[in-house]
Amino acid sequence: MVIVASGAFKHEEIVEKEKSIFLKLSHGSTTSSENVDADAPLAQFAVAFKGSSWKDPDSTTLMAMEAMLGSYTKHTKSSGVGEFKISQLVQKLEVDKMAESMMPFNIKYKDTGLFGIYATAK
């Protein structure tokens, strides 16, 4: 897990805030189904990898990959493109009804970046 903050924060303030939130989580051998909030209708998650900085030669490649992945929102399926969407990932999400939404992200910083997808699913 990575905690990121930007702005006029003191490192110690962020650490203490996160401790107050995450120390409530179990340290035992619970299963993921035991940690699920039954009142929450959707799981929201992101899968990310180290991306590229603005100056990195791979920056343009990752921008193209982000566009090629496409995005999906269950509520826009009335657009008529259905199973003929650009990426196989988006096609699979639509046809198999595997998620409510999915969008790629490509965040760039001065020296590094994050590349991945954010999704919501039941």
TrEMBL record:
Coiled coil: none annotated. The keyword NAD does not apply. Keywords: Hydrolase, Metal-binding, Metalloprotease, Mitochondrion, Protease, Zinc. It is found in: Mitochondrion. GO terms for cellular component: mitochondrion. The keyword Protein biosynthesis does not apply. GO terms for biological process: proteolysis. GO terms for molecular function: metal ion binding; metallopeptidase activity. Residues 1-121 form the Peptidase M16 C-terminal domain. PANTHER family: GH01077P, METALLOPROTEASE. This is Peptidase M16 C-terminal domain-containing protein. It comes from Heracleum sosnowskyi. The lineage of its organism: Eukaryota, Viridiplantae, Streptophyta, Embryophyta, Tracheophyta.
